[in-house]
Amino acid sequence: MLSIWLAAATLSLLALLFVFWPLLFQGREQLKEQQRQSLNVDLYDQRCAELAEQRSNGDLDEAQYEALKTELDLELLGADGLEGGESSAAQQAPGSGRIIFLASAAILVVFVFAFYQYNGASQDIILTKAIQEKFAADTMAVQSGQNPDPALARRLMSQLEERLEKDPENVQYRYLLARNATDLQEYPTAINAYRAILEIDKSPLVMGELAQLLFVVAGNRVTPDIEILIDQTLAQDPNSHVALGLDGIRYFQAEDYQQAIAQWEKAIKLLGPQSAGAQSLAAGVLRARALMNEQGGAKQGDAQLLANSASVEAGSEEKAPAEANGQLSLKLKVELADGLSLNPEHAVFIYARAWQGAPMPLAIARIKVKDLPAEIELSEAMAMAPGMSIATFPQLELVARVSASGQAIPQAGDWQSTLGPVANSSTEQHRIEINTQI
Asked: Residues 321, 285: contact at Cβ < 8 Å?
């Protein structure tokens, strides 16, 4: 900000110098003119004295003296280029005009600076600097494993609110206010900011984020207001991953698991399977598939997964159709460690994921402890998201986990075992012994 004022002051001085430079020369010319007039007056007085002396000596009579005196007066006026009292006014005019000009210039400079301070972009420059400082501080905090300083966010919010009092329709500042308020969990402020933006611009991005915020405030429930925002967002932007995720939750709560999976898989594809958001949605897909299995209401898109799971539960050694179709598949034998006794009704999740990559399962099967030991086959047909199957990664990690809660996401107290790296083209049967408690 200081650099802006220094630049403005420098430009103002240059402008004033450009204007006043002719006046400086004019002042010098006026000084020379005054000196010349003073010399003429001295000569005039000297000649008058000589004429008076000649008249006193009798060299000139009264008529001659008056004629010569009149001639001197005319010469003096002619030398000055003035008549009568105009000489005094002419001498005073430049000085008084200069004073008026200087005063006007000073007033103009003060007015311009005051006008810019009130209506200019100085506050925007301050805000931009504050945003940059907060971003840099947050980045350093995250890199050092610490939480961002909330004081910076609150100070920025205060500056944004002050600026919005003068510019209430600034959508960018409203959006920054909403995001910072959300980070600080000041949800009423964030909701009001989002709604104020929507009164100006029906942005699908803003509608999606407002729907997500209202979902959190409502205790992770999709309310009628949220449903309206979801529908409006998807109508304008069918590829809004936020709205797709919330839409999947809406269908999940309505027990329409097939449609929930469809919406979540679209969002996973948009986010990228290795992103944190996609992994969270993938866990939802796992849960929806498990519930479909329990209810026996799987649709055609999950027929292959259910057929594989059913064959395992029935103890069948029938080969999966994936092998006949030329797709990659992995054969596993899963069993409990000797002496380990677990609840026969607890769920067992067997899946393959990328070796040292994203934890999202690429193929998964679900059985019960009472079915162990069991032989499982994981194939490409069990892909959890489009374009993310066991064929996508050359090296895989195989996981078998007993879940007391029935949740696909690992929980404290679960028993599991892992094996890897395993080539996705491997044809041998891999043995996994569940022997480690999380």
From this structure: no
Token reading at 129: 């600097």
Q: What pLDDT score does 307 carry? A: 43
Burial 190-214 (b: 16+ CB within 10 A, else e): bbebbebbbeeeebbbbbbbbbbbb
Own/partner pairs for 229-237, CB < 8 Å, 24+ apart? 232/202, 232/204, 232/207, 233/204, 233/207, 233/208, 236/202, 236/204, 236/207, 237/204, 237/205, 237/208
CA gap 281, 273 in Å, rounded? 10
pLDDT in tens, 232-282: 999 999 999 999 999 999 998 888 988 998 998 898 888 876 666 777 787
Tokens of 193: 């900011």
- β-bridge pairing 329-336 and 429-434: parallel
Between CA 117 and CA 113 the distance in angstroms is 6
Residue numbers of the chain with a pLDDT score lower than 70: 1-9, 11-35, 76-106, 108-125, 142, 145, 273-276, 295-326, 357-358, 384-387, 408
Q: What is the pTM of this model?
A: 0.49
What is the pLDDT at residue 136? 79
CA dist 261 and 90 (Å) reads: 94
The alpha carbons of the chain give a radius of gyration, in whole angstroms, of: 45
C-alpha distances in Å from residue 199, one per residue of 71, 165, 317:
89, 17, 62
Q: Which residues pair with 388 in a beta bridge?
A: 385
Please state, in angstroms and rounded to a whole number, the distance separating the CA atoms of residues 385 and 289: 12
Residue-level length of the chain: 438
Nearest to 193 by CA among 226, 217, 160: 160
